[in-house]
Design goal:
Layout: H1 2-12, H2 38-47, H3 50-57, H4 61-64, E1 72-82, E2 86-98, E3 106-111, H5 116-121, E4 132-141, E5 145-152, E6 156-166, E7 171-182, E8 185-197, E9 202-213, E10 218-232, E11 235-246, E12 252-265, E13 271-282, E14 290-304
Length: 306
């Protein structure tokens, strides 16, 4: 644990600062915002900078899935200490590229079927989904809605539709529907996110999801709150609280989660680190609920438009 604290203290003194910061009426966007295009411009015009800045800085995959411009490489390395288990290491690599001399609607992707941001808010006790190579075609990409189809070598196929609606200047609604086939498993998932822009420095997000799969013929549901806080153009915090449950083999709460994430851009525009203290109350169908503390130091390399 003391090694994680020493590393984070050292990195916090090396904040990236290259050139003069352009302060506008809202926060300036980090370079990771380049992956967001017309689909998120609608959000930008309705909520000014808070929503787009936080989603860009934290690289929310539920949003950048709509991006059509540029290619992306994201490599995350987690060094964790888990109560009762000791030190653990996990690395995750994702990439998205355009095919040369082919329409920009078609991309080569190397990623899992799940989105890391949902796993961060709703941790799973099961192992993370493995990455696989696939192709994604962006059929529609409009300001308010998008639709894409993805096939992979697992084999599997997925259709994904998203609709974004601005209720007023402070409230924004996003609804995402996915239908998929993974080998012999058919499933669907529905995500509903409601954003409230408190002011220029704070954004509150209420996230909800429901997932059904044919192998268990049951539902998994979750709800959670995330409060984003802007610290500087290279630093931000997120506070998360969530709970998940299922109806198979009976109705019960599978996990309750509380965490804080501190994210900072250091040295280069493509280098980030995070400190994530968290606590989970897990329960399996045949066990009693158990509490587990965890501390994670995450080092992330992010390249866009390469």
């Amino acid at each position: 644990m003391r090694y994680l604290i020493l590393i984070s203290t050292f990195l916090s003194t090396a904040t990236y600062a290259d050139g003069k910061v352009d302060y506008s009426d809202c926060h300036s966007q980090p370079d990771s915002a380049q992956i967001l295009d017309s689909a998120f411009n609608y959000v930008n015009t309705k909520l000014c900078e808070p929503a787009i800045w936080f989603d860009s800085f934290f690289v929310d995959e539920r949003v950048d899935q709509d991006a059509r411009a540029g290619s992306t490489v994201r490599w995350r390395n987690d060094f964790s200490y888990v109560e009762g288990e000791g030190y653990k290491f996990k690395t995750r690599f994702k990439a998205r590229f355009h095919l040369p001399k082919v329409t920009k609607r078609l991309k080569v992707v190397f990623e899992s079927d799940e989105e890391d941001d949902l796993f961060d808010l709703f941790p799973q006790t099961s192992e993370d989904a493995e990455n696989t190579l696939g192709l994604r075609y962006d059929w529609l990409s409009k300001e308010r809605y998008s639709f894409n189809v993805k096939v992979n070598a697992r084999p599997g196929i997925e259709g994904r539709f998203r609709y974004t609606y601005s209720i007023n200047d402070e409230w924004l609604l996003r609804v995402t529907q996915k239908l998929y086939q993974k080998k012999s498993v058919t499933g669907e998932s529905t995500d509903i996110d409601l954003d409230y822009s408190i002011n220029r420095d704070f954004l509150l997000r209420w996230s909800n999801y429901a997932q059904w799969e044919s192998d268990i013929k049951g539902w998994e549901v979750g709800t959670g709150l995330t409060l984003y806080q802007h610290v500087s153009d290279h630093q931000a915090l997120s506070y998360q609280l969530s709970t998940t449950g299922t109806n198979r083999p009976f109705h019960y709460v599978t996990n309750t989660h509380a965490s804080v994430t501190y994210r900072q851009n250091v040295w280069r525009t493509w280098l980030f680190y995070e400190l994530i203290p968290e606590y989970n109350w897990n329960r399996e169908e045949d066990t009693q609920r158990e509490g587990e503390a965890k501390m994670t130091f995450r080092l992330e390399i992010l390249f866009n438009n390469i």
